[in-house]
Every structure is written in C-alpha cells, then in structure tokens.
Amino acid sequence: MALNFRFAIVSDLHLALPHTIWNHPSRFHLVEVSIPAFETVLEHLTQLDLDFLLLPGDLTQHGEPENHTWLQQRLAQLPFPVYVVPGNHDVPVLMANQQSIAFADFPYYYSKSGYDNPQQIYYTRQLLPGVRIIGLNSNSFNDQGEQVGRLDIKQLRWLEEVLAAAGDELVLVMVHHNVVEHLPNQSRHPIGNRYMLENAPELLRLLRHYGVRLVFTGHLHVQDIACSKGVYDITTGSLVSYPHPYRVLEFHRDNLGREWLQILSHRVESIPDFPDLQQSSRQWMGDRSFPFIVKLLTHPPLNLTLSQAKELAPSLRDFWATIADGDAVFECPHFPLEVRRYIQTYSALTQPTAGIATSGTLTLIDNNTTLLLERSADLAANPKC
Questions:
Q1: Strand-pair partners of 252
Q2: How far does the signal peptide extend, from start to end residue (predicted)?
C-alpha cells in the first residue's frame, strides 16, 4: 500500500528564557539565540504541510521549570502534533532542586507530546495509519546519582513487547543518545563515548530483529547520518550551535513496497540580534575550541605531548565546526603524517558509515540525501550498510 508523509526534526533546542541564561565564558552553545531561532524555524515549518514534528531531547538549557513550561505552551499552539523525548539537560537530576525539575516530572510537562501516560517516561503512539513512533528515555542514574546514557531493563522489555505487537507497521524510534557511532571509535573514545548509548548494541539487536530501520537522535550537536547493518541513526545538530540546523523529511512508499526517505536540511541564517548568525556562530565556536582540541590531541590514540598539541591546535580551530556542519572533509597536508591520518578519519569521505556506495562512488549524505530503505528480509540477504 502506498504511503507518503512529511515531518521535521529540530534537536537540542536548549531553550532558555533571557533571565534564566547561564553565562559561562567557555560554553560552545549560543543559548541566547534559542528562542528567536526556534521561532524562526517554526515560522518556516508552519508554512509546510507537516504531519508531525520530532524534538529528540535537550529541549531546555538545564531542566528549568520555567523553560519547560514555556515550551509546553508554545508547542500547544502549533498546527501539527509534536513528539519529544528527554535529553540529559532536561532531566539532569533525579530529584528536583532549586534549578531543575525532577526526572519523574518530565512526562507531566509533555502530556500532549507523546506522554499520554505520565507515569512512564517512554511511550509509543500511532502517528498515521501504519506508522508508529516510539519515544525512548536514554537518561538513567547510577547508584551514586550520576547521570548515564542507558536504557534500563524494564524499558527494553517494554520495547520488545511494543515491537512484537507492531506487526507490519513502519516504526520510527526517537532517543536522545546516539545508537550508531558518528565519530571514529566513538563508543570507546574518552571524549566521544558519553554521547553514545551505553547499551547501544543491545538496542540495535532488538531493532534489527524487528526490522526497524530509522532512529532519530541528538545530543552530539552534529549533522550526521550513520548506518549499522540496516539501522540508520539520523542525528541532527543543535539549534543553538553552529550551523543551527533543522531537517525536513519526506517518506514515500510505492505500490510495490519500495520505500525512500528524502532528507533536506535547513539552517537559521539570522535573527534580530545576530544578523549574520552563521559567520558569528562559527567564529564563536572556533574562539572556544582550543581546550577541546588540545584534549583531543593529547588523548589516545595520538597521545601527543602538551607542547605538541598546543602547537597544532590553532590550525584546528574550526575542526569541530566543520564536523558539526556535516559532510566534513579534512586534508591537513602540513601536519605530521600520524596526526594527518588521524584527523582525516573524521572526514565523511573516509568513514564507511557516512556514505552510501553508488556505482562505486561515496556520496555525502549528512545534510541532503534520499535513502533507499531495504525491507528486513532484503537486509538479511544483502545488507547495504
């Protein structure tokens, strides 16, 4: 049966009313643009014939009740349904404190955005006939009260029951933490691993078993599409970080059962206080990149000395901005060979999960592409990624 629908993704909004904004001299995020940037995006999206909007977490600056309330009220005004999941910034503490809501409070703010059962912090809803969304919670707390990215056993059991009952429905999964690696060795790298779901392999096995092919994530603040044995992890950059992106996607299924997902990315180019947001934001990120670059170069696998890292770091001031942009290409011809080869592993062209082989040529897909989605039976015989 033919099926066509259109939806959008806006991730890591980090919304902050002006009087709640924290001022940290080294922060990457331009939190002060959060509300005007979101309003600019909504102005565009409300002109489209959208079926729904997905917000994959970090909706607020740091879980402030005022910011959750503002967003709850703003979403209620939109002409299309919106579905959310919590990010680590939305539920930073288990019990409420002077700044943030309690972990268990989150569903009560978003009862109209997926959480029809506020006693549970994950949910499933039918979006359209034959189309289902599953919103997962990837925020857990260990025995010391520290936040970790993990799906607990109870949620995994619930998920398997939902997937088993879904039958032939098209299932879309949304979760904050990454499920497939978007950076080299991300799940084991001391800088990148906190953006990965700790038990991602367990979740991926479950998704593959039930033929789920599309997962929408955030958290990493980059534009990237990665694939692992038939499961696409489409992560969307942050609205408050360069390049301030959002996505509009169209799903198509023809009468022969062939399925495509077209992905188009847009950017907020300007807002009243930042008329040249793209340039000023990239500059902002580069100005604050030095400590991050030094940390990257002095950690494994390079293990450069501090003096070596400090010498190379200025040449890499735009390294993270280029990755966040999506479809990154790094050459670094003047770097020492070992360093050059390592930096080049972050290029989209050198990561097998970042491109699709088409007639022997890798295609850049992080921002704009059309994915041909294989059915689960086809994947078993001829995996495409």
A1: 4, 260
A2: none
Domain ranges of the chain: 3-267, 282-349
pLDDT, tens digit (0-9, with 9 covering 90-100), for 120-145: 999 999 999 999 999 999 999 998 88
pTM, rounded to two decimals: 0.95
